[in-house]
Amino acid sequence: MQSTPFLFFLSVIWFLSGTTGMAQAGPDRPRLVLQITVDQLRGDLIERYSKGFGEGGFRYLLDNGVVYTNAHHRHANTETIVGHTTLATGTDPAVHGMVANVWFDRKAGALRYNVQDERFRILGAGGVDADTEIDPTQKAATTDGRSPAAIATSTISDEIALAFGPAAKVFGVSVKDRGAISMAGHAGKAYWFSKSTSTFVTSTFYGNSYPDWIKAWNGANKPARYAGSSWKLLLPPENYAFAGADDQPWETDFAGFGRVFPHPFGKSDSKYYSTFLTLSPAGDELTLDFAKSLIEGESVGADEVTDYLAISFSSTDYIGHFFGPSSLESEDNIKRLDRTLADLFAYIDARIGLDRTLIVLSADHGAPEVPGYLATLGIEAKYFNFADIDRQPAIDALKLEFGAAEELIEKFSQPYVYLNTKVIQERGLDRALVEARVAGELSKMPGIAYAISSTALRTGGVASTSVSTAILANFNPDRSGDIYIVFEPHWFVADLEGLQVASAHGSPWVYDTHVPVIFKGPGMAPKRISRRIETVDLAPTIAAFLRIKPPSGSRGTPLVEVLSD
Ligand SMILES: [Zn+2]
């Protein structure tokens, strides 16, 4: 008897909510999920370089959002595809399968680039031909085909497509193919910047023709507008911590671009013109400009059905690799990224409404300091040379012991050592023993903190520590190598897939795992949270906020501070 008025009350609520026409989306469900990933943005850098920030960019997020100051990737190999896919899937590389930017495909006997797929060629539009040689980061790809097929689980973008049906629009945009493809998932569409043509491209995985708005964007040749100009400081020198430290010997002196301001872009037909654009804030400005055209051209966020747009900004990463995170270039880049974000948020507010948008900002990994810079502070740091590792006396002694005439270490591809399987089979050697002995010798070498055998790892033969747990989170039996190498803190191989650079991330140490995590969505009150969280928590938090199911391999925990007000 008592329940009757209550049921009547409920049915009135039900009726009222039905008449608003928002039954499916719900009045508090966002029209757009905007997932921003800033490549190589270490967790401390926003605050560190905040002098001179404007109002609508980082400040909007810091002052209004839920800000996590102690967020970390928990996998060991803090590389770009690994971090992006972890943010997208809410799980570890052991499960989503993207264990490294490049891994050794034993069946094919060749290195394999994470999103390469010979079945899906780059979609030609006015003679687009992706010349991967010009892009040092894609040197390992043996085909210009691309797809997300190697991602083993669903992404949050996939789940949005599944939950809201064909009316949900799902996109990923980045200068980097892997930055766009990972976030767009299997169900979305990915667009990235081709340095060989200075246009945004996609592959036949996503469709067989370009929509008119992309043809128009590429036809306008916006990248050429930077020709003859240069990257100059945004603000007067007093706003910069590194104003008096522009010219440093450890910075990469890329011919034509130089290591001091102003950095000239040169002529638009010169060989490295588009590379220089991406090695400056111009790369992010072009990404933003393309994203705006996408929002307009595809009517993103225009109706009550939740859409998803991922934007991965790549300039911070290239600039970090070439100049280090503690450089005038990195400092100016962050201040310019602040302006780029303010421009993006103003555009979204005008078209969709920031009050109808869930923004999630993070990074795929952090950034190590350059050894030369650390040396000026008395901190030991060095580059490790892996090229001659198989000819070291300790490894030669093992060859003698095992009766191996050929090399024992076939390949090192960050972070894994691959042993010579042929020698092991021909000599009838015990694989686990060879792994253990080689790992034992490697771990004694200066600069190597741990060398962990995969067999030992999966048979429980390794003590449980924070590092071994991170390596296990990275272990995928089909793709991981035989021995995982962890260098000492501040040591690394400074090889950006073939090109010598100032610094390279990829370690399980804090400077590489620490990333910003900021949520800003409808109804959220500003908070600053210092407890440790992990990047696997992002995707399940977005799912919980949208009241949909998390991605298929999700291992993270929804963040309570985002979900409660
Ligand atoms: Zn990256």
Verbal overview:
With 565 residues, the chain is α/β, with parallel strands linked by helices. Helix content is 33%, strand content 16%. The strands form 6 sheets. Strands 1, 2, 5, 6, 7, 10, 11, 20, 21 and 22 form a 10-stranded mixed β-sheet that branches. A hairpin with a 4-residue loop joins strand 6 (189-194) and strand 7 (199-201). The longest helix is centred in the middle third of the chain and has 24 residues, at 328-351. The protein is globular and about 70 Å long. The protein starts with a helix and ends with a helix. Mean pLDDT is 91; it is low at 1-25 and 125-138.
Summarize the structure.
With 565 residues, the protein is α/β, with parallel strands linked by helices. α4 (80-89) runs parallel beside α7.
Reconstruct the topology from this structure.
Blueprint: H1 3-19, E1 32-38, H2 45-48, H3 58-64, E2 66-72, H4 80-89, H5 93-96, E3 102-105, E4 110-113, H6 156-164, E5 170-174, H7 177-184, E6 189-194, E7 199-201, H8 212-219, E8 230-231, E9 263-264, H9 273-278, H10 282-297, E10 307-313, H11 315-323, H12 328-351, E11 357-362, H13 371-376, E12 382-383, H14 393-402, E13 409-413, E14 416-419, H15 421-426, H16 431-443, E15 448-453, H17 454-458, H18 466-473, E16 483-487, E17 491-492, E18 495-496, E19 499-500, H19 510-513, E20 514-520, E21 527-529, E22 533-534, H20 538-546, H21 560-563
Parallel strand pairs: 1-10, 1-11, 2-21, 2-22, 5-6, 5-10, 12-17
Antiparallel strand pairs: 2-20, 3-4, 6-7, 8-9, 11-20, 13-14, 14-16, 15-16, 18-19
Helix pairs in contact: 4-7, 8-10, 10-12, 11-12, 14-16
Zinc ion is lined by residues 39-40, 80, 317, 364-365.
